Amino acid sequence: MTDLQSNMESFDPSTIRILKLVTLEGVPLFDDTVEQWETIWNFKAKPDDLLICTYPKAGTTWMQEIVDMIRHGGDTEKCARAPIYERIPYIELCELKPFPSGIEQAEALPSPRTLKSHLPVHLLPPSFFEQNCKIIYVARNPKDLAVSYFHFIRMDKTMVQPENWDEFVETFIAGTVAYGSWFDHVKDWWKAKDHHQVLYLFYEDMKEDLAREIKKVAQFMDVELPEPVLNRIVKHTKFESMKVNPAVNYTTVPDCLMDQTISPFMRKGIVGDWKEHFTVAQSERLDEICTQLLKESGLTFRTEL
Ligand SMILES: Nc1ncnc2c1ncn2[C@@H]1O[C@H](COP(=O)(O)OS(=O)(=O)O)[C@@H](OP(=O)(O)O)[C@H]1O
């Protein structure tokens, strides 16, 4: 068992508090992140760091496991060495003392490191760009993402609970949720790919043809993937496999922090679940706003396959 896991096991539930959102340069972030902002902003990325960046609930964990499998030649045992949040630190996370912050975890890792962030482009520590680090961005259509975010918040005991789905949709569209406007996030990272080493991928494409998207990731990482290794990675990172894998499904996090009886972290893993949640009016409104806000960017999203 790793130190972090034994810390998890002895975690004192009475230390949990609900995180407030504090706006930093137009983006609501968790208060602990903002308190530690100077340390986060001054994080020293190394040239061989690989960053996985997403708006929350876009398929981060999925990409984390794919990258770790590629780095380890498809060796599933090596990828079970620790939970995903320990193998790939979430750099701006610094809630929950006495756990180490994302930065402390990153600093303790040997290179080459893989790191996770949900930060928008303008808040990413500048060293990632100065060091010309490779960045993989995963985007997901806003309807399925909003549904996933809603259910995640319901089970995450450190987040302010929305009244109900209708209220959540409004806050999501208004960008008053953690990490701010989804529209700005996906658009700004889309623009960033023209100036930096950013591989921009879509959750829906991964669902459509996982092998094809894994090959793109491996090529970006300059790793040759022999067919049997690719097949192993595909099998290991399918939703059905990840759902029952304790190294990625967050079941190692105590229930008092993430109550997966309310909603599992690996919930449905599909494209189109939004149809079970959005009213026709909500769906049409979001479509309209999307068309308006994304039209100049050329970015389009698929909401069904
Ligand atoms: N392998 C695989 N295939 C398909 N879908 C997958 C997979 N792994 C994770 N997921 C789904 O991704 C959603 C969680 O998103 P994130 O990992 O980005 O969450 S987080 O921001 O890191 O908390 C969450 O989506 P929903 O099921 O729609 O809630 C997960 O189920």
UniProtKB/TrEMBL annotation:
A Gene Ontology biological process term: sulfation
UniProt-annotated location(s): Cytoplasm
Pfam families: Sulfotransfer_1
Sulfotransferase domain segment(s): 47-298
Keyword field contains Cytoplasm: yes
SUPFAM superfamilies: P-loop containing nucleoside triphosphate hydrolases
One Gene Ontology term, aspect cellular component: cytoplasm
Gene3D superfamilies with a match to the protein in the record: P-loop containing nucleotide triphosphate hydrolases
Entry annotated with the keyword Transferase: yes
Protein name as catalogued: Sulfotransferase
Organism classification: Eukaryota, Metazoa, Chordata, Craniata, Vertebrata
Gene name in the database record: LOC100566571
